[in-house]
Amino acid sequence: MVGTPLGQAFITMQPENLSVAKPEQKSLAIYIVDDDDDVRFGFARLIRSVGVNARPYASAQCFLDELVEGEQGCILLDLTMPRVTGHHALARLKQLGSRLPVIVISARDDEVTRAMVRDLGAKMFLRKPVDDQALLDAINWATGFSLGR
């Protein structure tokens, strides 16, 4: 597992921004968008194990059709999916002005891919397979919450 922060987030964080709040379990939603059933259900099981609402989607289109803005949380997004790819979903989220942070999780890991998802607004890139604690840490970093086991 390799985590790559995108942009200058680690460098520009001010000490006052490092505090972590406990989420209200019912208001925090982690959207899991991945066409691989095993990955999607595994991530959902992990998220639920820390008491947070997991919302798994087998396709980017289903996710985009049901997206509810205004909720707290983040999006775990695979890049390589049929029909509507993760790249297309990121572009649509950017177009919609979504404020939900996106963590891209993909087996494809190269400079071009990382640059593209960064330009489309992703907060972090993780390479599959992803370690459970590393995923929770990434969600904590992206949301400012403190999820853990």
Can you put this structure into words, describing what you see?
This protein is of the alpha/beta class. The chain has a single domain, classed as 3-Layer(aba) Sandwich (Rossmann fold). The chain is 38% helix and 19% strand. A 6-stranded mixed β-sheet has the order 1-6-5-4-2-3, with helices on both faces. Helix 4 (86-96) links the parallel strand 4 and strand 5. Mean pLDDT is 83; it is low at 1-25.
In short:
Helices cover 38% and strands 19% of the residues.
CATH class: Alpha Beta
Strand order of the largest sheet: 1-6-5-4-2-3
Residue windows where pLDDT falls under 50 for at least 5 positions: 1-25
Intertermini distance: 19 Å
Q: Tell me what the CATH architecture is.
A: 3-Layer(aba) Sandwich
Secondary-structure class: alpha/beta
Averaging pLDDT over every residue, what do you get? Answer: 83
Radius of gyration computed on alpha carbons: 14 Å
Helix count equals: 6
Biggest sheet, in brief? 6 strands, mixed
Basic shape: globular
Strand content is 15-25%
Question: Helicity level, as a percent range?
Answer: 25-40%
Q: Return the string of H and E elements.
A: EHEHEHEHEHEH
Query: How many E-type strands?
Result: 6
How many separate structural domains?
A: 1
